[in-house]
Amino acid sequence: MYSTGKIAYEPLPLPAREEKSDAQMLEAAQAFHALMKTRHTIRDFSDRPVDAEVIRECIAAAGLAPSGANHQPWHFSAIAAPALKAQIRAAAEAEEEKFYAGGAGDEWLQALEPIGTGVDKPHLEEAPWLIVIFAQRYGLTEDGVRYKNYYVPESVGIATGFLITALHNAGLSCLTHTPNPMRFLNELCDRPEHEKPVMILAVGHPSPTATIPAVAKIKKPLDDILTMLT
Question: Where in the numbering of this chain does the Nitroreductase domain appear (predicted)?
Answer without folding.
Answer: 37-205
